[in-house]
């Protein structure tokens, strides 16, 4: 049973939609009359001050049990993760719905990244799709495998990703669209809380991650290729073997050799430090339960 809702912004300090949107929602008292208390959290406060993704380490990779149970305060984001765990947790406390707001430099449109932990998450995503059919849904198993994101603090959680949006920039249309998604998610949560009937489809189309493709590098460690022009901005469009993947610095082209799939986070700026050029997913239709 969900007893609290927390809207999180600024997990990455250079993604401005989250911090400014939670400030607006709080100032407008948008959910002050909600039957379920709604609160707000600016996650990486120091990185937000600097408009940088993080200070010492990626906060959204800092919620592992090892970090949360450690007392080493030398890494700012590790210390902050433990503070957030105390505020929102303890970890795996299942009475809080966490909505974590993000933006991406990739051409992802409006995307929900849903935890594969509770039937409620997919039901809520499906409700959003009923009102916003262009919304894509990624079913994430990374928390199950690595349990390292902020959303791993609760089984009821999802991230909102909107793009393309440069880091350190606000766009009115994407800001407004994210606010609409939040309102749909909270409406659905309140309807479930009051046991109000909600008609949902029997199935939902989701994308599941199958592979992460790295950038080629030269012997001295520098990039030796870039995402091919024909692939750029083609997030969620089909990628088949033989299609151009990388434009190499020597003028040649590397073609895709993997299984057919749907690429996402293509040429995402934040993933350069992880050397990830794009992520491959497969599309599945799964039954809505519960």
UniProtKB/TrEMBL annotation:
Residue ranges occupied by any Succinylglutamate desuccinylase/Aspartoacylase catalytic domain in the UniProt entry: 3-188
Record has Hydrolase as a keyword: yes
Cofactor binding comment, as recorded: Binds 1 zinc ion per subunit.
Active site: 161 (proton donor/acceptor)
Top-rank taxon, per record: Bacteria
Classification via InterPro entries: AspA/AstE_fam, Aspartoacylase, AstE_AspA_cat, Aste_AspA_hybrid_dom
A Pfam family recorded for this sequence: AstE_AspA_hybrid
Boundaries of every AstE/AspA barrel-sandwich hybrid domain copy: 203-282
Membrane-spanning intervals of the chain: none
Keywords carried by this UniProt record: Hydrolase, Metal-binding, Zinc
GO CC terms of this entry: cytosol
Cofactor requirements of the protein: Zn(2+)
Residues at which Zn(2+) binds: 12, 15, 102
CDD domains in the record: M14_ASPA
Family, per entry: Belongs to the AspA/AstE family. Aspartoacylase subfamily.
Descriptive protein name: Aspartoacylase
Organism: Endozoicomonas numazuensis
């Amino acid at each position: 049973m969900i007893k609290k809702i927390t809207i999180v912004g600024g997990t990455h300090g250079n993604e401005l939609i989250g911090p400014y949107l939670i400030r607006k929602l709080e100032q407008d008292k948008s959910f002050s009359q909600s039957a379920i208390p709604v609160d707000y959290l600016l996650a990486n406060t120091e990185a937000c001050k600097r408009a940088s993704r993080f200070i010492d380490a990626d906060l959204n990779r800092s919620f592992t049990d090892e970090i949360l149970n450690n007392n080493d305060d030398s890494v700012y984001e590790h210390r902050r993760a433990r503070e957030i765990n105390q505020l929102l947790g303890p970890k795996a406390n299942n009475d809080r719905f966490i909505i974590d707001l993000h933006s991406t430099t990739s051409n992802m449109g409006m995307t929900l990244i849903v935890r594969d932990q509770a039937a409620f998450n997919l039901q809520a995503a499906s409700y959003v799709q009923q009102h916003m059919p262009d919304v894509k849904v990624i079913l994430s198993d990374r928390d199950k495998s690595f349990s390292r994101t902020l959303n791993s603090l609760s089984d009821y959680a999802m991230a909102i990703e909107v793009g393309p949006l440069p880091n350190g920039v606000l766009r009115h249309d994407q800001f407004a669209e994210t606010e609409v998604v939040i309102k749909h998610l909270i409406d659905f949560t309140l309807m479930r809380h009051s046991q109000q009937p909600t008609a949902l489809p029997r199935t939902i189309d989701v994308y599941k991650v199958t592979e992460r493709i790295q950038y080629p590098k030269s012997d001295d460690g520098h990039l030796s290729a870039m995402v091919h022009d024909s692939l750029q901005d083609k997030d969620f469009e089909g990628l088949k073997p033989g299609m151009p993947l990388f434009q190499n610095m020597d003028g040649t082209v590397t073609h895709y050799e993997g299984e057919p799939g749907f690429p996402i986070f293509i040429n995402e700026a934040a993933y350069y430090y992880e050397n990830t050029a794009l992520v491959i997913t497969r599309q599945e239709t799964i039954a809505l339960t519960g």
